[in-house]
Amino acid sequence: MVEPIELRSASKWYGPVIGLNDVTLKIKPGVTGLLGPNGAGKTTLIRLVTGQAEPSAGEVLVYGEPVFRKPNVLVRLGCCPDVEAIDEESTGFEFVRSYAWLSGFSRAAARARADALLSRVGMSEAAHRPIGSYSKGMRQRVKLAQALVLEPDILVLDEPLNGMDPLARRETIEFVRKLGVEGKTVLVSSHVLHEVEAMTDSIALMHHGRVLAEGKVHEIRNLLKGYPHQIAIESSDPHKVARRVMDSDHVVGLRFEDRELRIETRDAEALYLAIEGLVLDEGIDIVRMSTRDDSLEAVFDYLVR
Amino acid sequence: MAVDGVVPLSFLSAALRVGALGPLRLLRGRRLVLVLLLVAVPLIVAGFAWMVRPRVLGVNNFVNFVALFDLSLLLPLVAMLLSAGAIGDDLENGTLLYLRLRPMARAAIIAGRWLGCSIACCVLFVPATIGLYVLQASARHPDLLVDESGVLLAACGIVVLAILAYTALFLVFAVVFFRAMLFGLFLVVGWETAVLILPNKAALYTVGFHSRALMSQATLEGSRVHAIVDPFREVGLLPTVGSSIAGLLVATVVLVAFAGSIFGRKEFLATQKEG
User: Fold this and answer.
1) Which of A22, A205, B65, B76 has its C-alpha lying 20 to 30 A from B171's C-alpha?
2) Which segments in chain A show pLDDT lower than 50?
């Protein structure tokens, strides 16, 4: 099966600077978060995927075709770049209408399309104001609208939540999730972990131009055998729980915090089984149980630091 | 294609659409004031002469003005400001990135930009040339307005040819050089003027020489443009009308294609050009 986006040993050098280093990656339909600190290579990867740059080595394929200098591939791909520059004198409506027209719509259809898309991203009211008067979040939404002009199968969003107010942020997150559910391939880059976490649990972690890990967050976490899982348990009798699990080989640490017992284990599944036994055999009530380091932030910390 | 009824644009329609957006975009903002001032210089000078010494005006003087003001300096300067500035502006305001994300051939973007710049220049210079002719020819003998209208037609044609070639040339500068305006300025006030000082073959490779040669051949004896071109005529280096027109047209096509080819391969960063 042809993947929507595929990088095969792709590298990109800017003179002596390595932007992307031998990256092999497949992006499947659904939302994928591209995560990494500033300078990790996320924007370089996006420039390669959207055909704005040619790989120095390797291949970058969109639906099995190299994307650089292949404008036809761009029919299936929309991009919301993380570029501040935008034509300040145009109105949001003119901006989206122009790019709809340049994408092949007739003048009348481009107008209708701009209206529909601006309404979809919640910008109908401000559509006829100059972009120069927009807040950063409003600009982001207008940029998102132009990316959707052709209802692309692939949507590439570079830091799409930058500058958005909390309401717009929540709406955009919902919007992106919905696109993923509809079967679109959405690649979202961000250096803010919880933003990506709110959109998807499928991620690619980048650092120094390399992809350190890819897949579901908890799958990646499970592969990090060297780092014990931290599991917090709030129960009717935390001391009894502690006594019961402390002799297990996989448990490497115990700590009480308020009414919570924090357990460090090398095998989360084994611990869950043991807790299950406790509930059945001893009749202990478990109020709440949560993993403390299955979060993106924890995974990222383990991989990068 | 995920949206019904939308067909990917052919090269020509993409270029036409990019071109149609160009003139309006170029002829607004602060640059417009400078460009209008430059275009108005011959009209202001002629208007002043009309008030002070109307005897100096006439069709010959119209030819001199077109050749010496417009073709030698103002037209290339305006073409440079619009076309060399076009890519820089596009880069600065993000338009270039959004254009390059459209499903169209990159060369079509350049062809469109060339078309847009050429239309913008024509919109400025053709009416200005007509205005200059009316002012000059009507100063002494209003009958000349009609009698010598062939000169006006020739002048307008030459102005259009020069615009097409200069905008193409400066688009090449825009996609090749980071400081396109600086190189453009050197070409206009340096190289193109220098090669006219002595008869030499290098002049044959300049837009300025061919446009002035055409002007001298299409107009009356005794104009100053004859004085510039005559040394070339004497040593047999004056091209024929046909070869000058063909030369300018071929140069235009080659330059636009060259700019398109470089633009297609070149990667642009958001805030700077990258080799």
Assistant:
1) B65
2) none
